[in-house]
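User: Predict the structure for this protein chain, please.
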Amino acid sequence: PLEMSAKKPVPFLRQVVSVRKKVQRDPRFDDLSGEYNPEIFMKTYSFLDSIKKQEKEMVQKQLKKCRNVEQKEKLQQLLKRMTQQEQAQKKQQHMRERELALKRQQRELAKQGKKPFFLKKSEKQKLELAEKFAELKRSGKLESFLSKKRKRNAIKDKRRLPSQKDL
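Assistant: Here is the predicted structure, written as structure tokens:
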């Protein structure tokens, strides 16, 4: 240690030993980690899908065997979360495939010499909604979906109306 005079006042922030400060970096936003490509990511980590499937089956088996109410509730929540994640992943994959199909179509039109036409966000949403309705009609769940939507809209409308107290 460095000997210092006792008569001299010690500086408030005295650096005893210089320590190199660790630079924290977030791989999500750092260029060193490379560019994010969802297709490559899905191909690289496709083995996780099989592991998730096995885990889901294991949770289902545990749920059948379980007698404890609290444990059963936790397992049901876990199973529900797993299925929701699976559905979200399928939906995301479907959206990606649709976008790729639109891009391919535009490339074909460009090769033929036509001017490329890109859909607006609202047009994409309309196409998505039409596809959703077709899927619901095919599965036979359209009527229940529409009734739920009507109820939701009615509740929103009721909320927007002025209450009797205000009048």
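The chain is about 65% helix and 0% strand.
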